[in-house]
Specification:
mainly alpha, Serine Threonine Protein Phosphatase 5, Tetratricopeptide repeat, 2 domains
Length: about 240
């Protein structure tokens, strides 16, 4: 966190010394996003775009900040512009897919993930996100196939293991789900939702005591929904 503040100070000093380049404003915006100062980041991206109206990365980054503020339509507009400037911007397609998913445009989200993967076949996060959309459409086996690919590309993708475990739970493959949650927790020992879902899978297999311990751990890590599950299964 301290490093981010130092970076922002550095970029601010750079700007105050008349080095008002689009890249500097863009970089300061990225630093502000790291601090969840999305409005401040948007202000910097606006300035970057004002200096360089063809700065595709700044449009993409501004779209991400808008999406973080739940302005999904505004985010999509920025991703459209980034893609117009750079039709091979895989990240902009990926991000636009996330925004469409948030707007429940699932077919549009999958289409954008497809395009991101077409441009970059090793885009693990795009496979993971496409899997998440397929799961929402109850295509659990299709989702698992995408999570498999994400994990093949990035064996340390804790979220992909967690998502695959959740899809396996949906198919009542609780042992398979537990195996994936174990891996997600091994990679990220503070993965609250993985403890929660592992706990539920254990309870479904009759391992109530161990499952309730996992639910308790999820709650301790800040996942408040775990306490509802404890009321349902452990009291």
């Amino acid at each position: 966190m301290k490093v981010i503040f130092v970076l922002i100070l550095f970029f601010s000093l750079f700007i105050s010394c008349q080095n008002q380049t689009a890249e500097t404003y863009n970089n300061r915006g990225i630093a502000k996003v790291s601090l969840q100062d999305y409005s401040g980041a948007i202000s910097d991206y606006n300035k970057a775009i004002e200096i360089n109206p063809d700065f595709a990365k700044a449009y993409n980054n501004r779209g991400f900040a808008k999406g973080s503020l739940q302005d999904y339509s505004g985010a999509i507009s920025d991703y459209n512009k980034a893609i117009e400037i750079n039709p091979n911007a895989a990240e902009a397609y990926y991000n636009r897919g996330i925004a469409k998913d948030d707007l429940q445009d699932y077919s549009g989200a999958i289409s954008d993930c497809n395009k991101a993967i077409e441009i970059n076949p090793d885009f693990a996060k795009a496979y993971n996100n496409r899997g998440a959309v397929k799961r929402r459409l109850q295509d659990y086996r299709g989702a698992i196939s995408d999570y498999n690919k994400a994990i093949e590309i990035n064996p340390n993708a804790a979220e992909a293991y967690y998502n695959r475990g959740t899809a396996k739970n949906d198919l009542q493959d609780y042992r398979g789900g537990i195996s994936d949650f174990n891996k997600a927790i091994e990679i990220n020992p503070d993965y609250a939702k993985a403890y929660n879902n592992r706990g539920i899978a254990k309870i479904k297999l009759g391992q109530k005591d161990s499952g309730c311990l996992d639910l308790s751990k999820a709650g301790e890590l800040g996942y408040s929904q775990a306490y509802e599950a404890i009321k349902d299964f452990c009291n």
